[in-house]
Every structure is written in C-alpha cells, then in structure tokens.
Specification:
It comes from Cohnella abietis. Keywords: FAD, Flavoprotein, Monooxygenase, Oxidoreductase. This is 4-hydroxyphenylacetate 3-monooxygenase oxygenase component. One of its GO terms (molecular function) is oxidoreductase activity, acting on the CH-CH group of donors. The protein has two domains: 274 residues, Butyryl-CoA Dehydrogenase, subunit A, domain 2, CATH 2.40.110; 193 residues, Butyryl-CoA Dehydrogenase, subunit A, domain 3 (Up-down Bundle). 46% of the residues lie in helices and 14% in strands. It contains 17 helices and 14 strands. A hairpin with a 3-residue loop joins strand 6 and strand 7. Helix 1 packs antiparallel against helix 2 and helix 14 packs across helix 15. The longest helix is centred in the middle third of the chain and has 28 residues. The structure holds flavin-adenine dinucleotide. Flavin-adenine dinucleotide (FAD) binds next to strand 5, strand 7, helix 15 and helix 16.
C-alpha cells in the first residue's frame, strides 16, 4: 500500500522523513507544517528516531530486533510471534531495553500498538471465525507494518459529551464515530475519537469502539486501520507540556502528545476494514481479551520501569533532606517497595504460567497482567502522593533556572537550598526532576495516564469481579454450609 524505500536510510531516519506525508495536525490554532521538526514533538520523535536506528546498530540489533522472514532485514521484536517461552522472554528483553532507557515515561515507543496487531495476527485463524477475510487482511497489514517499521496508535472512546446516553441517543449522529457510506472500494467514516496519544507522529490509527456493542449498534461495530495522512483525518493536539530541559528535564524529552482525532468523511479501503458491522468480531478482538496479552505484557514491563523510577525518586528525596530516618517516611518508602515488587511478581507469574495455544503461539497468562495494570492504576497515583508527602514544601523551594547567573542569588542558593547530604546544585536538580513527576503539567498528565490508559478503572475493577472464575471460591463456602 505504500512505496517504502528500503535502500535509502536507516529506519529512524526513514521515520523522520516519512512524517512529512501531508498529514493534517493542529496545535494551538496553527496547522503543523512538518511534525518531525516542530518543538512540541521534538522529544518523543527524537527518542523514536534513535530507537528505530538501533535496528541497524551491530551492538543492539539482536537485542531489539529480529530478522524479517520476508525482507531479511531487522525489524522490531514487538512483531515477533513467540513460538517458545524463550521467544516470549526475548520480546520482554527488547521492551525492557527501551523502557529502561526512558524510565517507563513513554508509553508509545510503538510496541504497544504493534503488540495489538501482532496479537491479532497470531489469533488470525480464531478471529477468522467472525469474518473469513480477517485472516488475509490482518496478515497483509501485519507484514507491512513489521517490514516498514510502521508506528500504530489506537483510539477507542468517542468524544466525552454526554456519557449518560448511548450512541443512538446522542443529539447529533456524528458524535459517535460511524460509517456513513460504503461502495465496492471501501467505507466512509465520520465522527471523532477523544484521545490518541502519539497520533500526531504515528503512521496508522487503529479505530475501535468502546465496550461490547449489542444488536442495533452494528454501524459502530467496526475495527478499522486508518492511515494518519488519509484525507479527512484531522489530528487536534492539546497544549504542549514540553518545558526547557532546565525547567522540566523529563517533560522536555518525554511529553507524548495526546490529540483528538477527527474523521471528516474519511475513506477507508476494505483492505483496512478488519471487521465491519460485526459486534461479536470486534468484541472478540477487544483490548482486554487474551488475544491482547502480548500488549498487556509490554504495558506491565513499562509500568515496572516507571514505578521503579518513582520509587528511586522517593528514596532520593527522603535521603536528600534527612527525612528517611522518620518511621512514617520509612513506612511510605516501604510501601513503594511493596508495590514495585508486587508488580514484578505479577509479571513473573504471567510468564511462568504462559501457555502455547493450538497454533503454537506462547501467550503470557492474561489475568496477572490485567491485575498488575488495574493495581497500578491506583498504586501509581498513590506513589505520586507519597512523593508529595515526603518532599512537602521543598518542591517549591526551587529557584528559577536563571537565578544561578546572579552572584548574590547563587551565594544564597548555595547556602539555603542544599540538603542534608547533597549540595544545592544536586538538590535543586533532584527536586526539579521530582516536580516533573508530581506537579508540572506533564507530570500531572503522567498520573492521569496511569489512572486511565487501560480504560475506566471503575469498570475495569468491576470486570475483575464479573469475569473472575468464582466457582472454586464459592464451593469453599458451599462445602462449609453443607457440612453438619
Ligand atoms: C493521558 C491519557 C492518554 C490517553 N490516551 C489514549 C489513547 O491513546 N487511546 C485511547 O483510545 N484512549 C486514550 N485515553 C483515554 C482513556 O482510554 C479513557 O480516558 C478511559 O477509557 C476513560 O474514558 P473517558 O476518559 O472517556 O471517561 P468517561 O467514560 O467519560 O468517564 C467519566 C466518569 O464517568 C464514569 N462513567 C462513565 N460512563 C460510565 C458507565 N457506563 N458506568 C460507570 N461509570 C461511568 C467514569 O467512571 C468516570 O468517573 C487516554 C487517557 C488519558 C488520561
């Protein structure tokens, strides 16, 4: 579908060039001419470029990549369909390398969307039961995405207008994304999706409906892949939260842009319509199913790296100001350790209990991964609260970046801004770093992300109860009640 020039450049360089493709991205009230060079995207786009080029690095290519059976070139391991447990762990090692480099602060290093597609590809024979064309279409897309190093993001929720209403009850039919026409070539969709993180600099957008759709809602029950530069796609960004490296050392690098995506009568060829008016097919491919445990595996690996970074920040703050000697501070730091080690344990359980399916694909056990994601939706905000409780007002005793240039202020800072065991320069840098997790716009967004990235936590926790295999537990009670 695209004319990917394999000979010209390394994948990261090619990625940068590929973004100048006529896409329509808006930031503030301006269309963005070239997202690859716009300062609002410079951090994450630069990280992605570096990482993609590692597929050509003799030292790293075997860690992050494997050889495509079609092109003979290195492609990222998120596309690897694990045929053994060792391959599942190879995928993990590739993810770990990137999330350790970014301390888990970037959720869209491309492996998340790629793992969704890899899961569908690995389940193609099963999902073909809901549409016989599914297998052929997902195979073609998977191979193209893998061999052209495409970045995919997903968009699920319709705009947040009136959640008390079903799609069909909304005042304007365009408020829920739907199909407005079809012909022999494909379909035309109209509507908007509320949030697509990294959509401004992705190649393709996976468009899905939210929840399980019932009879009568077929027009919304589609699973579609839309090229980000398709005519009619408008990507509308929020404000940039990227600060200067001095002010926001994390947000300068890792402010992943969130954007609403408007589909203004966008034509999608049938090749990219994986399920059409097919509530059951869409539900079976939905993001919480076993077919997506490869994606959830990646999410938990990222969560662990991020939680470890926040934990390390907590330790560092406490020790910088001599607060680690207080019992309640030790208790809070211990809580961070307990949560971190619990997440790690859940990941290991999912890997130990991994099983091959009838097609030979090794899937990590889904339940511990879902438990880790749901647990972290509460543990991460609590970790941020712990940082606030330990650092307290110290987060605001931070001079502006240029205060150091003034002789008098520099002398005052050196004297009054130091910590128990660190000099003023180190303490100010540490507290700025921590502020970029707990108080800056990008830090607040990171917290909101962990609460919601996998859907509404209220409904996710309820689903844990509703979908849990309750019988073995209930039998215990029954046994007691039956005993005399
Ligand atoms: C930083 C960030 C990045 C994101 N990136 C992406 C992305 O890349 N792709 C993507 O698809 N999504 C993304 N999301 C969206 C995310 O999936 C949603 O925020 C999440 O699914 C919750 O939906 P909502 O925000 O529409 O909240 P709503 O569904 O509008 O919920 C608002 C409130 O109403 C309650 N509520 C609403 N409906 C019900 C109901 N039926 N039953 C019970 N309670 C209800 C909720 O519990 C909540 O308290 C992102 C979100 C954030 C915060």
């Amino acid at each position: 579908m695209t004319n990917y020039d394999r000979t010209s450049t390394r994948p990261g360089d090619h990625y940068i060039a590929s973004l100048n493709d006529g896409r329509k991205v808006w930031i503030n009230d301006n269309p963005v001419e070239d997202v690859a060079v716009h300062p609002a995207f410079a951090g994450p786009v630069g990280v992605l470029k570096t990482f993609f080029n590692e597929l050509h690095d003799p030292e790293l290519k075997d860690k992050v990549g494997y050889v495509s059976p079609v092109t003979g070139e290195y492609v990222h391991k998120s596309f690897l369909v694990p045929q053994t447990k060792e391959q599942l762990l190879e995928r993990k090692a590739a993810f770990e390398y990137w999330v350790d480099e970014t301390d888990g602060l970037m959720s869209r290093l491309s492996e998340s969307g790629r793992s969704i597609v890899t899961g569908w590809y690995a389940s193609r024979a099963k999902l073909a039961a809901y549409d016989k064309e599914f297998e052929r279409k997902i195979t073609a897309y998977y191979e193209q995405a893998r061999d052209e190093h495409r970045i995919l993001v997903s968009v699920v929720a319709d705009p947040q207008i009136d959640r008390s209403k079903e799609q069909t009850e909304l005042s304007d039919p365009d408020l829920a994304l739907r199909v407005v026409s079809e012909n022999e070539e494909g379909i035309v969709i109209r509507g908007a999706k509320m949030l697509g993180t990294a959509a401004p600099y992705a190649h393709d957008i996976l468009v899905l409906p939210e929840g399980r759709l019932q009879e009568g809602y077929e027009q919304y029950a589609n699973l579609i892949i839309v090229a980000a530069n398709s005519p009619g796609v408008e990507i509308v960004c929020r404000d940039s939260f990227a600060l200067s490296p001095q002010e926001g050392p994390l947000s300068a690098l890792y402010d992943e842009m969130d954007a609403a995506v408007v589909f203004d009568d966008v034509f999608v060829p049938w090749e990219r319509v994986l399920f059409y008016r097919n509530p059951e097919g869409v539900y079976q491919a939905a993001l919480h199913k076993k077919e997506n445990s490869l994606m959830h595996h990646q999410s938990v690996i990222r969560l662990i790296a991020k939680y470890a970074f926040v934990t390390a920040t907590g330790f560092s703050i406490a020790e910088a100001i001599g607060a680690e000697r207080f019992l309640h501070v030790q208790e809070k730091l211990g809580e961070l350790v307990v949560q971190l080690e619990s997440l790690k344990a859940l990941l290991v359980v999912a890997e130990i209990e991994a099983q091959p399916d009838e097609f030979g694909t090794w899937w990590p056990k889904a339940l511990p991964l879902r438990v880790a994601i749901d647990a972290a939706s509460r543990a991460y905000p609590r970790a941020i609260e712990i940082l606030q409780l330990i650092g307290a007002g110290g987060f605001l005793q931070v001079p502006s970046a240029d205060a150091w240039a003034n002789d008098l202020l520099r002398e005052r800072i050196g004297k009054y801004y130091r910590g128990a065991r660190v000099d003023a320069d180190t303490k100010v840098k540490l507290f700025r770093l921590a502020w970029d997790l707990i108080g800056s716009p990008a830090g607040s967004r990171q917290e909101l992300y962990e609460r919601f990235f996998s859907g509404d936590p209220v409904r996710n926790f309820a689903a844990q109860y509703l979908e849990y295999d309750k019988q073995p537990l209930l039998q215990k009670i029954q046994k007691r009640l039956n005993s005399r």
